[in-house]
């Protein structure tokens, strides 16, 4: 059996987060409204 | 492609003013740098995705609540958020359970000192010295194979190549070496235990 000496490169430039994560973030952003009343802030998430 | 020419600061401003597309451009532009940074520290795809998601949830909340005031330094700011979340992750996972000594529970039931006592160390040393002396008594060809196998951790294939004999001969010499050692030990009634 050939031995593999090369190590997996951790900080590869082509790494990307899952598509689902990005799409969740975009949907979350669209749904979120932050309302500030005096020194308090309220997060409203629209369904 | 026109997106490439819009600076981060302007995209952040547009996003705060309600332009949702600006966020998707910012994510697309920096996702691999930020995700790569997280993955380089975490080395686990799923946890890295979680931390990436938490990072941008913080970004979104901060921007939407108008608390962002670092114009022009969007990427370093996001990197700092993800760095803090990575530190939090390690704090959570590396936390040691705490034990408190009570009447029913002794702390020494979970703690132990595995190192040898002075007496056992002396016995081990003595056994090793005795064994080396016994090995010296073996015929040269058997001694050679035994030393190579046990002390130099070589395979029988390597031993056979080095001593220029077949693997079977090397195996046979090892067998005779062990048999002879046992014979000498029995004959002189030597006790080799610790």
TrEMBL record, chain A:
Name of the protein in its database record: Uncharacterized protein
UniProtKB/TrEMBL annotation, chain B:
Ranges for domain RNA polymerase sigma factor 70 region 4 type: 130-169
Gene3D superfamilies: 1.10.1740.10, Winged helix-like DNA-binding domain superfamily/Winged helix DNA-binding domain
Keyword Transcription regulation: yes
Domain of life: Bacteria
Record CDD domains: Sigma70_r4
Domain RNA polymerase sigma-70 region residues, every copy: 26-94
Pfam families linked: Sigma70_r2 (PF04542), Sigma70_r4_2 (PF08281)
SUPFAM superfamilies, A to Z: Sigma2 domain of RNA polymerase sigma factors, Sigma3 and sigma4 domains of RNA polymerase sigma factors
Stored InterPro entries: RNA_pol_sigma-70-like, RNA_pol_sigma-70_dom, RNA_pol_sigma70_r2, RNA_pol_sigma70_r4_t2, RNA_pol_sigma_r2, RNA_pol_sigma_r3/r4-like, WH-like_DNA-bd_sf
Keyword vocabulary terms for this entry: Sigma factor, Transcription, Transcription regulation
Family, per entry: Belongs to the sigma-70 factor family. ECF subfamily.
UniProt cross-references to NCBIfam families, sorted A to Z: sigma70-ECF
Name of this protein: RNA polymerase subunit sigma-24
UniProt source species: Flavobacterium frigidimaris
Taxonomic lineage: Bacteria, Pseudomonadati, Bacteroidota, Flavobacteriia, Flavobacteriales
């Amino acid at each position: 059996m050939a031995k593999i000496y090369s190590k997996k490169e951790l900080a590869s430039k082509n790494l990307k987060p899952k598509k689902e994560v990005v799409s969740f973030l975009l949907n979350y952003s669209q749904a979120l409204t932050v309302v500030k009343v005096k020194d308090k802030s309220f997060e409203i998430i629209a369904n | 492609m026109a997106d490439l020419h819009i600076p981060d600061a302007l995209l952040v401003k547009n996003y705060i003013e309600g332009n949702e597309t600006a966020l998707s451009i910012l994510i697309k532009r920096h996702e691999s740098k930020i995700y790569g940074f997280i993955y380089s520290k975490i080395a686990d795809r799923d946890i890295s995705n979680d931390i990436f998601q938490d990072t941008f949830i913080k970004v979104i909340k901060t921007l939407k609540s108008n608390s962002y005031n670092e114009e022009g330094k969007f990427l370093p700011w996001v990197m700092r958020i993800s760095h803090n979340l990575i530190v939090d992750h390690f704090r959570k996972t590396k936390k040691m359970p705490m034990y408190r000594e009570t009447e029913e529970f002794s702390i020494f039931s979970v703690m132990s000192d595995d190192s040898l006592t002075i007496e056992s160390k002396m016995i081990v040393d003595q056994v090793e010295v005795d064994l080396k002396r016994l090995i010296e008594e073996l015929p040269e060809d058997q001694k050679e194979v035994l030393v190579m196998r046990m002390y130099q951790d070589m395979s029988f294939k390597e031993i056979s190549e080095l001593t220029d004999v077949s693997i079977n001969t090397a195996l046979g010499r090892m067998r005779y070496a062990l048999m002879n050692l046992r014979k000498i030990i029995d004959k002189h009634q030597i006790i080799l235990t610790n």
